[in-house]
Amino acid sequence: MRENKEKITISLIIGAMFFVLTMVIFMQFKTISHTDIDALETMQESELRTEIASIKAQYDETLTKLEETKSMIKDYEESINTDKEASEILQEELVKSRNLLGKNKVEGEGIIVTLTDVDVGKFGKITASDLIELINALKTAGAEAISINNQRIIANSYIVDINSTYISVNGRRLVSPYVVKAIGDITYLESGLSQKQYGFIDSKTNQGKSVILEKSTNIIINKYNGNFKFEYAKEAGLWF
After folding, report:
1. Same domain for 35 and 12?
2. I need a surface site. Which of 24, 72, 154, 213 has the fewest CB within 10 A?
3. Residues 6 or more apart from 140 whose CB is under 8 A from it?
């Protein structure tokens, strides 16, 4: 009786974690689906190739995570059946799931990118689109955690311009300078932003905007303090 109860408990935990991983993957597909088609149509051939390569990298990354999720679910099922270190595996993956949702404070090596308004009357003002472009570039380069002015960026974070006066991130009002922290492999993160001509840094500085990149071996990103709210999605039951 006790053994069956433990299996049911573990099954419920697995179901919850599977839901978390699926939500993260869904949000990544959502990001890819929001690609600006009109902008693609006006790009030159060389720019178009770069943009397509970026989109393909995001798509491949999402498919890879989907396969990893399937593999983890299989491992969990085997652990339940064999009772092989089940609690240790679940605890480890629970921490990973909380990191994906931004519910843990994290630290590690990475980069800090500071974007500052320059000559606001013309084209030097930082926009929400600039921040979104930077976030996507960092994710493609393998960033494991990102924040903007200490606001943790998670799967359902929204970054929008408000009346051309400030930028709202996670419902918080932010103004220049925008300090973007990213934890991950420093080499990959730096090279992901530093491509000549069409890389993020070159493209923004050519627009007259200020972008400064710093490397750090000790970046701290606080946890996400907001609530996860679903207005239309309802639980349909767990399945195994």
Report:
1. yes
2. 213
3. 54, 57, 58, 61, 192
